[in-house]
């Protein structure tokens, strides 16, 4: 990302944060507003992993979201981190591996964010569904016990082993009625994951 692109990106995030985040919003409300904005307005660049969009921007940089509306996990995680920090959240970028096919480790990036004094995992890429009419929060505010089923990381982070209690992870109505909802990693989301 060039210096000019970085400035344009930050200006975009600052405006959105000013217009949408209130000082009275709880940590969880801020997380939901940010993740829903990203997942509603942008999509995963499935066919361009490691590549570039038609405008020549790397799909790994969050700047590509504001220009081409598509990117990969690195951009999802970086944008969530940047927006979260602007909103006053204690949030970090994590690198590791995602294992959606039980054995085919893929490099992956996601976040940890502090809520009520403890860190939890948030994976927007795996939350983002192909069906943009549905909101999915299956991989939001998860503890290590849940995440280690599908993710691996080597760095030592002080993350809760348990999921954040009281968070509504209910799946969209379409899934509850029998329609299979998949995320961009190919994982079929089900009520057993909640």
TrEMBL record:
SUPFAM superfamilies: Cysteine proteinases
Ranges for domain Transglutaminase-like: 65-126
GO cellular component: cytoplasm
Top-rank taxon, per record: Bacteria
Protein name: Transglutaminase-like protein
